[in-house]
UniProtKB/TrEMBL annotation:
InterPro entries: Glyco_trans_6, Nucleotide-diphossugar_trans
Active site: 247 (nucleophile)
Chain positions recorded as UDP-N-acetyl-alpha-D-galactosamine binding sites: 68-70, 73
GO molecular function, one term: hexosyltransferase activity
Cofactor details (free text): Binds 1 Mn(2+) ion per subunit.
Compartments it resides in: Membrane
Organism expressing this protein natively: Terrapene triunguis (Three-toed box turtle)
Residues binding an alpha-L-fucosyl-(1->2)-beta-D-galactosyl derivative: 247, 270
Species classification: Eukaryota, Metazoa, Chordata, Craniata, Vertebrata
Protein name per Swiss-Prot or TrEMBL: Glycosyltransferase 6 domain containing 1
PANTHER family: GLOBOSIDE ALPHA-1,3-N-ACETYLGALACTOSAMINYLTRANSFERASE 1 (PTHR10462:SF49), GLYCOSYLTRANSFERASE-RELATED (PTHR10462)
Amino acid sequence: MDKLLHNCPKEVHMHLLLKFFSLISCRRTDVLLMSPGLAPIVWEGTFNRDILNAQYRQKNFVVGVATFAVKKYDFPCAIQDLCHYAYGQIKVVNFYLFTDHPEKVPSMKLAPEKRLFIIPVQNYSWWQDISMNRMDIISNHIRSHWRYEVDYLYSMDTNVQMFEHIGVEIVDTLVGTISSWQYTKPWDSNSYERRPESRAAIPSGEGDFYYAASFYRGSMSEIYKLTCFKGVTEDRANGIEAKWHEESHLNKYLLYHKPTRLLSPEYYWDEELIRSHNQG
């Protein structure tokens, strides 16, 4: 802890320490609990959900969840899972479902404080096009009306395994999720874009965590800044496609705009890893 705080201005020491210890209630010795940027890393078993719920109970905030179900999706399962994830003390939730098949979305009965908005979107020929256009779509909706409707926004895919009891521990100003792949491969095999001609490029030797584009979130103002990052459009104009598309640009942004909280891979586990484990 002393080493992490060495170069940090003294006036922010107390704020950082209070934030860290208010979240982390059980010290695990098998995982990293704080990032080099002094943000808490949330792992199962490292916090007291009752304490966090009590802190947020008096806060009347609204959460928005944006997800894309384009091309082939099991709509009933995807939507039921989506609406199931955000609960606990997060009472008011707007679900924004972007789909190229709005007619296939089944009718669902939701709690009064949870609302589902079905938004038609273009059916792109390639999944890469869907990925690369998501940030533009999200930023346009934030600018037009979401900023008046919700306080925090989650962007998430519908095909990754999550904890059933996800709650207010994921709420913060800017939150990144550590990729589950980073914990199954050697450190030097992470997938940063290294080509200097790409706006997503991270110089060799730089980088700390590899973040999943499948699940990121934050306050409306911070997510708007993130989605307005012009790297994607500038690369496209120059005929460049980053190594992992939108995710490469997300990692470039979060390297230089540090998250205020990180979620462990436990919170968003890639189903492909589960299949690989079962087959092995």
